Amino acid sequence: MRLTVNDESVELDDGACVTDLLAKMGIAEKGIAVAVDWVVVPRSEWHEQLSYGAKVDVVAAVQGG
Hints:
Blueprint: E1 2-5, E2 8-11, H1 18-25, E3 32-36, E4 39-40, E5 55-60
Parallel strand pairs: 1-5
Antiparallel strand pairs: 1-2, 3-4, 3-5
């Protein structure tokens, strides 16, 4: 299945979820937020299947001032 992640095309296996996506991209699950089609996804729902063509935004928290 093809998704758009942070404005770049990504190919995942059918039935993939947010945790699968993060693993494929090598992104640690701590300190990030994920939105799918402009809706923030609670960490408790990251195991739910993503839809073909979904727009996913992954944002990392940064420290500083």
